[in-house]
Amino acid sequence: MKVLVVNCGSSSIKYQLFEMNDESVVAKGLVERIGLDGAVLTHQPADKEKVVINANISNHTIGISLVLEALTDAKHGVISSMKEIDAIGHRGIHGGEKFSDSVLVDAGVIKAIEDCIEMAPLHNPPSIAGINACTELMPGIPQVVVFDTAFHQTMPKKAFMYGLPYEAYEKYGIRRYGFHGTSHKYVSQRVADLMGKDYNDLKIITCHLGNGSSVAAIANGKCVDTSMGFTPLEGLLMGTRCGNIDPAIIPFLMKKENMTMEEIDTYINKKSGVLGVSGVSSDFRDIEKAAQEGNERAQLALDMFTYEVVKFVGSYAAAMNGVDAIIFTAGVGENSIEMRANISKGLEYLNTKIDNEKNNVRGKEREISIDDSKVKLFVIPTNEELMIARDTKSICSK
């Protein structure tokens, strides 16, 4: 059984084609910088040379089309046609309280995802675009959506409720949902394997750091808290999202700048974050380069991001009354050596210390703390795609 996994992020598309008989990857790739200058598709067949395709990728639909072309290309493709694919798995972001598990795609599921766009304006539209593109190009092939929110359904009520009148939860489902759940689940389970310990006996903090970022607290195999909330806007400062702010700022800005609801939504979701602070880019690589060249606002954006990660990790260590392992994952977490080092410096009170030599790594699985560190530090590349492929196989096999 071959499963194609399509993972649409706010500015990227990850994909992997799996042979599920042995869970081997036939091909994988990444579309980066969607909507930005320098957009690129990197396609890696399992038994061929890597291919880099530069293109004008203004939206996710164009990105999906390029992916499918790469998979079937006469020179660097791995299948003769889309008919060789048995099922497609998609990363779903926000399903409200309608979905607490993975689900087979039908018209009702797409409508439900559309209904939740107002809660995930950056992510639900790309997810729908991915589903629609695959439906058009591969009609009849079953598709499954694996929701980011599912892993966080174990949070206790004291963690997911807001201090609003209770009727807001009862009438509209206003609560903390959390996101990046597939990633947090994968790396937390993986670290238990690496430590040789029972997953249900560990206290773990996972830091999914990228254009979209979140931190999660996992105690005894269950998520007990996470930084993102009702939407993926809450929590850390991100690529274009503001993260936590005083809610009173919203009406204040609307009045001062004469903004509509749509304009303020765009302002906090697409013009804020490290982009808004730095004035440089939403891409951390661009910001790090600018900071190295002396750009003070770029350095401020990096300092703010580091500070907020340290605060969330500290609060979750307190919430769980301890922590055994802290994991860095996703684009920034896996690849920014300096960012990991700076964050770790703020965590030494937890009796953890980074090993600078071990930390000199990008995109590889490795423990990066010193040998006698009580709290272990790890870099674990996330594998949301494998988790999605497993759920897709399970549902479609039924």
What does this structure look like?
It is built from 14 helices and 14 strands. By secondary structure, it is an alpha/beta fold. It folds into 2 domains: 2-147, ATPase, nucleotide binding domain (Nucleotidyltransferase, domain 5, 2-Layer Sandwich); 198-384, Nucleotidyltransferase, domain 5. The protein has an 8-stranded mixed sheet with strand order 5-4-3-2-1-6-8-7, with helices on both faces. The protein has a 6-stranded mixed sheet with strand order 11-10-9-12-14-13, sandwiched between helices. The model has no long low-confidence stretch (mean pLDDT 93).
Number of domains: 2
CATH class of the largest domain: Alpha Beta
pLDDT < 50 stretches: none
State the helix count: 14
State the shape.
Answer: globular
Reported for the largest beta sheet, the result is:
8 strands, mixed
State which percent range the strand residues make up.
15-25%
* DSSP summary, beta strand count: 14
Mean pLDDT: 93
Classified in CATH, the superfamily of the largest domain is ATPase, nucleotide binding domain
* Helix residue percentage: 25-40%
* Structural class label: alpha/beta
Radius of gyration using CA atoms only? 21 Å
Q: Classify the fold: give the CATH topology of the largest domain.
A: Nucleotidyltransferase, domain 5
- H-E order: EEEEEHEEHHEHHHEEEHHHHHEHHEEH
**Secondary-structure arrangement, i.e. CATH architecture of the largest domain:** 2-Layer Sandwich
Separation, N- and C-terminal Cα atoms: 13 Å
Strand order of the largest sheet: 5-4-3-2-1-6-8-7
Protein name: Acetate kinase
GO molecular function, one term: ATP binding
Active site: 148 (proton donor/acceptor)
GO cellular component, one term: cytoplasm
